[in-house]
Amino acid sequence: MNAVKSGSSAASRALAVLVPLALLSTSTATLAAAEDAQWLARAAVAAADNRAAPFAVVDKKNARVFVFDATGRLQGSSPVLLGLARGDDSVPGIGEREMASIRPEERTTPAGRFKTEPGRNTKGEDIVWIDYDAAVSMHRVRANVKSERRLQRLASPSVADNRISYGCINVPAAFYDAYIKPALGTRRGVVYVLPETMPARKRFDFLRPSAL
Amino acid sequence: MNSTSRLIAALALGAAGAAFAQGNPPTTAPANPATAAGQQNPSGGPMGTTGVTPQSGGTSGSSAPTAQGSTDTSSSSGSTMAASGDTPAMRRARADRN
User: Fold this and answer.
1) CA separation for the pair B28, A154 (Å, rounded)
2) Do B84 and A188 touch (CB under 8 A)?
3) Contact A131, B73 (CB under 8 A)
4) Comparing C-alpha atoms, which of A130, A3, A67, A48 is closest to residue B71?
């Protein structure tokens, strides 16, 4: 009994140390992501690249989306689910392929500047097209395949388990309705997806020295 | 019926006639005959194609994949993209990559 008690208290002590560390690590990552997103947002607004419209920044490394108003003021942010594979390009022709034929290494969320538009998928769901031709959209998270545990992945503090989709950006439903839909779901807009395999300036013209 | 009553009745009849005359008369030369007849293609195309949404660019209905894929979709979707902030005509529903 004592052994159980002492084991239990040791576990409690370990948890007492590990949980704050995990939370600290998560909040540090979130802060870093927010800094990157806000830095990009400031540059985009300064260059009038957002065309005086609300926009969003997706930080793939930290699996978060940040929504800004037309002046670059942060409105809200949320964890997101992204394409399973690491990479910043879509495989040519992937938008025309059956889902079942898309191999795991092809399931990337492309990076860059995307002109978005509201739309619908074949199930009638309202979504925001990021890249219509490549069939990449931002939509409410879908939990219809239980084994994928998408809701749990979104809820977990870890970023590593947020890579599960075929390329689409999955957003918590409440966040989609509160922020994404008002900003991007009724009009054309811009979404900036930060790359994860190269510097941001390689994907955004307004960050290049000649544009500054 | 005295003269006052006759006068009131005449005025009432005149007012009613004026009220009827205020209605818009039917036009014999409408700007859009199809609209006037209650028939119009919602897509703006000629009659006979009602229900068919015109596809921009290409006749097959399938859009070419983006070779570049990620840097900037303006090359692939620029034909339907005006300045941001406007209300777009929604494109054909299609499956997304979930």
Assistant:
1) 63
2) yes
3) yes
4) A130
Domains parsed from chain A with CATH numbers: 2-211 (2.40.440.10)
Q: Please indicate if any CB of chain A lies within 8 Å of the CB of B89.
A: no
Q: What does the alpha-carbon distance between residue A207 and residue A112 come to, in Å, rounded to a whole number?
A: 12
8 Å CB contact between A134 and A90: yes
Q: Which residues of chain A have a CB within 8 Å of the CB of B64?
A: 133
Search chain B and give the residue with CA nearest A186.
Answer: B87
A138, A171 in Cβ contact below 8 A?
yes
Q: Give the closest-approach CA distance of B52 to chain A in angstroms.
A: 17
Q: How far apart are CA A187 and CA A182, in angstroms?
A: 9
ipTM of the complex: 0.78
Q: How is the beta sheet containing A189-194 ordered, strand by strand?
A: A74-79, A64-68, A55-59, A189-194, A112-120, A126-131, A136-140, A169-171
Q: Which two tokens stand for residue A113?
A: 């500047």
Residue pointed to by tokens 């600290």 = A24
Chain A hits for B84, Cβ within 8 Å: 50-53, 115, 187-190
Q: Which residues of B25-50 are buried (b: 16+ CB within 10 A; e: fewer)?
A: eeeeeeeeeeeeeeeeeeeeeeeeee
Q: Which residue of B has its CA nearest to A130?
A: B73
pLDDT tens readout for residues A72-126: 999 999 999 999 999 999 999 999 999 999 999 999 999 999 999 999 999 999 9
